[in-house]
């Protein structure tokens, strides 16, 4: 059976979901393909682990550090901490991209604001007071959370919110489907189909059977790891692609006079863009805390979850390493290690101010792979539609892989804006309007 559409979107993270919704709103017949499951979020450890197992939603670096992502409807937005940040305008202006109108439109419709005080947990509040006393400009962060549906004392943000409180890209996919888009989950795209220098569709596997779908527009939104792999499998990209990953460590310390452990993480923090460092509170569910304590060799702290303050240290790392067909490899550079060391020192100062003892830092992990198919590199810069692959008409990329420089920021809002912009440009003057 030959399936034909106006556009095919591969991946349902923020970039793919936003472009699919915009195209469907314009009247396009859109096919949305997602490798993971569209099963409702249950907010359980078991479901979350299934979305983020190494080799599925996550990967192990060769140095054994973990690169976390989500293979599910909504991509990593289903599992992230719902923190939003505007993109640096100059980074995109250098490529002729103005995201301001799209950001304004998104901010007008999304649940996007700092948490009310009633939803800031006791651990985040203690860290905020200590950080300010230590001289840090520590402020609440924008969260993509519906306060009226959010529950104090809840820990399910990172497991996949089952209460509808946390916004995820699933919301935009749902709207695209209401506008007529077709969604096929558990569908792994193998390659892009090409004819005469044009994209004409994709080949994918669903329920063990190979399927082919045709469209004159194909948007790859498989993520910072998935999209370069798809391009290579289609004969369009290098075998190995370099990338950034936004390495993170957690700095933890015990306090005897606080009993908590269940709250929204990253309620507040501080950013030092000139140094490439960002800090935030990072209260995690007990099993994840235990994994970090074990990773750091702190067996004696396994039972101290309810009495442990945790500060996230995230850095803007240098682009490098390699994404291969079946593995990723990215070591920290001396500059990356220096930034982490500086951030860990800041976190230790905050925890000392908070009265924490037995402070330790975890091994690094990473959560925002990108920059692997950058605008201005494999993608057009100021000419044409800047998300189009060079020399291949009708093939576009819209996920964290297109970010043109090292990042260090939560990418969700930026990818939503890029997806909205791409969808509008593709639908402008198209035959399906």
UniProtKB/TrEMBL annotation:
Tagged with keyword Transferase: no
Record keyword 4Fe-4S present: no
Keywords per UniProt: FAD, Flavoprotein, Oxidoreductase
Name of this chain's protein: GMC family oxidoreductase N-terminal domain-containing protein
Cross-referenced PROSITE patterns: 4FE4S_FER_2
Family affiliation: Belongs to the GMC oxidoreductase family.
SUPFAM superfamilies per the UniProt record, alphabetical: FAD/NAD(P)-binding domain
InterPro entries: 4Fe4S_Fe-S-bd, FAD/NAD-bd_sf, GMC_OxRdtase_N, GMC_OxRtase_C
Domain of life: Bacteria
The 4Fe-4S ferredoxin-type domain, residue ranges: 141-171
Pfam families the UniProt entry points to: GMC_oxred_C (PF05199), GMC_oxred_N (PF00732)
């Amino acid at each position: 059976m030959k399936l034909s559409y106006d556009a095919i979107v591969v991946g349902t993270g923020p970039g793919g979901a936003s472009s699919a919704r915009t195209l469907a709103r314009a009247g396009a017949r859109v096919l949305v393909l997602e490798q993971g499951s569209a099963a409702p979020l249950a907010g359980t450890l078991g479901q979350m682990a299934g979305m983020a197992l190494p080799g599925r939603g996550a990967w192990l670096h060769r140095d054994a550090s973990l690169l976390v992502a989500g293979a599910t409807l909504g991509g990593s937005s289903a599992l992230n901490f719902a923190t939003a940040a505007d993109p640096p305008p100059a980074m995109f202006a250098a490529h002729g991209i103005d995201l301001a109108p799209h950001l304004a439109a998104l901010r007008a419709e999304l649940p996007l604001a700092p948490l009310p005080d009633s939803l800031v947990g006791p651990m985040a509040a203690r860290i905020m007071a200590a950080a300010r006393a230590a001289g840090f400009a520590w402020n609440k962060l924008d969260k993509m959370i519906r306060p009226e549906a959010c529950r104090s004392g809840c820990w399910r943000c990172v497991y996949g919110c089952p209460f509808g409180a946390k916004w995820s890209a699933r919301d935009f996919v749902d709207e695209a489907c209401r506008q007529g888009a077709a969604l096929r989950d558990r569908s792994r795209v193998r390659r892009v189909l090409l004819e005469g220098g044009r994209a004409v569709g994709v080949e994918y596997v669903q329920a063990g059977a190979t399927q082919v779908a045709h469209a004159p527009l194909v948007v790859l939104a498989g993520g910072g790891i998935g999209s370069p792999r798809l391009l290579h499998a289609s004969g369009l990209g290098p075998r190995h692609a370099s990338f950034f990953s936004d390495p993170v460590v957690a700095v933890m310390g015990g306090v005897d006079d606080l009993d908590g452990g269940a709250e929204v993480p990253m309620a507040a923090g501080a950013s030092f863009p000139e140094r490439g460092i960002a800090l935030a509170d990072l209260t995690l569910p007990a099993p994840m805390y235990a994994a970090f304590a074990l990773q750091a060799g702190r067996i004696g702290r396994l039972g101290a979850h309810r009495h442990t303050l945790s500060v996230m240290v995230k850095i803007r790392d240098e682009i490098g390493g390699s994404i291969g067909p079946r593995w990723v490899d990215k070591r920290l550079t001396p500059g990356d290690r220096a930034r982490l060391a500086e951030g860990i020192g800041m976190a230790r100062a905050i925890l000392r101010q908070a009265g924490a003892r037995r402070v330790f830092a975890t091994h690094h992990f990473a959560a925002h792979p990108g920059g692997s198919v950058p605008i201005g590199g494999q993608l057009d810069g100021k000419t044409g539609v800047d998300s189009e692959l060079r020399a291949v008409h009708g093939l576009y990329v819209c996920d964290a892989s297109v970010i043109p420089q090292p990042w260090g920021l939560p990418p969700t809002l930026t990818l939503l804006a890029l997806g909205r912009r791409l969808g509008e440009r593709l639908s402008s003057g198209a035959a399906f309007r």
